[in-house]
Protein 1
Amino acid sequence: MTRVVQTSGRSKLWSDRLHILFLAMWLMSPSLINAARNSTGQTWAEHDIWDVLMESYPSKMLPRRNTTHGTLCKVNLLIRGISKVDDMKMEYTIQLTLRQEWNDDRLAFDDRGVHEYLTAPDPEKIWTPDLFFQNEREGHAHSLMAPNVLLRLYRNGDIMKSSRITLTLACPMDFHFFPMDRQVCEIRLASYGFTKDDLDLQWSTLGSSVQVAAGLNLPRFILNEVKTDTCTSTTSTGVYACLKVSLFLERRWAYFLVHTYIPSIMMLFISWISFWISPESTAPRIVLCMAPLFGLASIGTNVNDQVPQVSYTKASDVWFGFCNILLFSALVVAAIVNYRKRMDKLKETQQKDRMEYGRDFNLEAQHRLMGPSKSAPSGEEEEAVSKPKPKGRPCCFGRLCLPFDRVEKIDYLARFLFPGKDYNPWLASNTKYWYFMQRAQNSSASFAVIFLIFNIIYWPCYLSKYD
């Protein structure tokens, strides 16, 4: 019994050795493999082929290291999503599927078309290019349920490796045109340890080099265009191959139009209402100038908090700066009007005092000249003397000045021609009222024209960057 068991064990051992021998002959010589396969009637499984290939495979050595031509690695990218574009840190987070293709003749095999390709059970045992992202700040490979890595080996030694990764990449930004700016963010991929003579990088020529997942949508930007290029990197240790992807991101500035530009324009209109308020109402005029000034400062602060502090002037700074100048000018005009009103009242008071003092002095001198023999003036005469006569000051409409009596006639004529209108003779004859109304119209019109000219220059200047 013991002899039978030993005999069966030896036969099994010899059978395994023959299987391995036949597999080695299959991989080395197709004719011998065909003869062995015809004689045995068996087809080797993938794991058996991998076992033979991995027996003496140097996974740390570069393919074709001793040849005149280096290894060529073709790269293909799939942009799955861009989750965040951080203006403050000047970085963005992107999820990619990185595909690499190269040839390793040490892993070539010939199974007469039995397997189209082999899937590596352990990709870490295969040599892969030492690629890294030059502008990477953070990154990780996905391996929640299983490592998201795929490696396929074809019969001629071609290898395709696909992996899913998430990266946080640096993106230097230019805010000269903010918030109508367009940023260009890059993905720079290069070899870390092998020079261009040993490992050369090239964009894949089959299909598009960079694909974008359908339905990619960003809340604050629009992905307009994707361009690929090369960026050979030269350092003190040699020349290294490098590939570059440029992502053109256009900011969605409709949010700023609704929450920044339109409110600031409304605040300017509110400040111009103060020109139509009577100079006697000092408090309302000041409030209508100060409130929009504080509101505009608050909006400007909120906008500037969304971008980093830069040493140059942004488009938003130009807008808020000019609006602040207009608001401050309206406040200065209100202060000047208040000052002029106070000075006019002071002059009127002084003139009235001088007139009363002169009338009293003239009456006293007249009594002295008349003497006690002459009769004193009657009450009617004294009342006539004390009653001030109409000054007859002209009423001016621009450069046209009319005397008081002609203004009354014009007012009555206007009543006759336009009976439905309620004309006030006192207002029509009040020079200061018409003077104030004319100044208010001129001031508001001047500010509106200046602001219109500014918009004609501002918008074409900052929107022409897309040409």
Protein 2
Amino acid sequence: GAEYLMKAAEMGNAQGIYELGVLYYTGVGVPEDAKKAYELFELAAAMEHTAAQYMVADHLLGEGEGVVEEDPAAGIRLLYEAGEKGHRRAREQLLHILDGKTRFAKRTDGVPPFKKH
């Protein structure tokens, strides 16, 4: 559970840091805390963790309102890095951006991040 991921994160394990971020993001096993989740995703992304790069990009592209300022250039760079490592959704999102089919505004319609509108 969360206690094992906390220990892995304390040891500097990128996967443990990312998974702990997911728990805080979803509120499973720990209190939901979007800011703490983003900080953990950012830490794991700095360690080249592909899924964490995707989550940080998601926040920078408009899903992190109240947590981080929107920064499309940095978000796109992280999507590219994750896509280069094979992250399917990052590649899909980059294609949507290139096709002009993605907006960077916060979604209020319940559509999951990076879904084509």
Protein 3
Amino acid sequence: MTYSLNHTIYFHGRPFNANEWMLIELESTNAAHGRGLARGRIWNEQGELIASCSQEVVVRNKESKTSKL
């Protein structure tokens, strides 16, 4: 199971049209000890950076639903 601890998106003040194509670049910067961090950048068709985002998650094993008897 993966649970989001927080997520943020920063808009950099450049005007953009959400109906136009955008490039979203995502990377997992760290995943260890049950936690993960991902960052992303969003570019418009002109190659301008219009937003940045990040998300931190916690990962846990799903508990078994089998009987313990």
